[in-house]
Design brief:
By secondary structure, this protein is of the alpha/beta class. 32% of the residues lie in helices and 15% in strands. The structure holds zinc ion.
Length: 332
Amino acid sequence: MPIKFPFSRRTAPSDTWTKCPSCDAQVFNKQLERNQRLCPSCGHHFRMSIGERIDLLLDPGSFSERDAGLEAMDRLGFHDDRPYLDRLETSRIKTGLRDAVVWGTGAIEGQRVAIGIFDFRFMGGSMGSVVGEKLARCFEAALVERIPAIVVSASGGARMQEGTLALMQLARTTAPLVRLDAAGIPFISVLTDPTTGGVLASFASLGDVILAEPRALIGFAGARVASDTVGEEMPEGFQTAEFLLDHGFVDAVVPRPELRASLARLVKLLPVAAVDDGQPAPVERPWGPIGALSGFAERFGGAVSETIGIDVEQPPAGDNGREPAGDRETSR
Ligand SMILES: [Zn+2]
């Protein structure tokens, strides 16, 4: 059942002006709202709220939100100059959202998809346990319902106020993607300005197709940290969508007015694989950049612990005489 959003779709009062960061033009906010939040003079892509994204990408009235009630808790009792709970409350009031991601099912030109969307205004779109859980459930629903998954990212990375619980979400979100991959269900990742840190370093860079909005900032660490780490000057604009397209990291840079049509085309071109009676065959992952990440994810993402041999009940000797594959030795 489609839901009505309790929050305002506007990001600013409509009777004020916004200065375009690319061309310095003063743009009337009403004009931005009418124009998919693109600068009328230079085409700069302003950030969008979740409601605006839904209107942009999905068939009218088709979106149905899931897990709307999930709310972050302050497990660590964290505070820096302000308690984490205060920061959450401020963001909730500012955005009308419970956390930085909304997910649900909807249709793009009549084709059902599971979609997760970030709002950067909510604590910089940072990924804590609720964001990770929502995205994982989005992928798991795509698997069960056999529909493509799409995530529109806009994030500064892991939510530092949740410490290691936030880092665990890198595994939580990538583990179900391995299962989607094995089941032949496509995942399309859309990177918008900005997509950085632990979000880029996990599910966002694992799309079967990775799209980006023009001139979006996309990178792991900040430019200065990246230069210091490798000990050399990085090329101009190395963290833009266009640079990453030139270097094969992004499949296409898609201007916002074409995004919906591009997603519709991709969903048609990448049909969900037919069900192969029963379980999908287990996939042997090569040891590579993605293999390493998903191997890690499988170990910690709630899958099974038998691959690392912790607390796994051994079958009685002789019952199933074969040694498990891998390098684990059991003494008998
Ligand atoms: Zn402009």
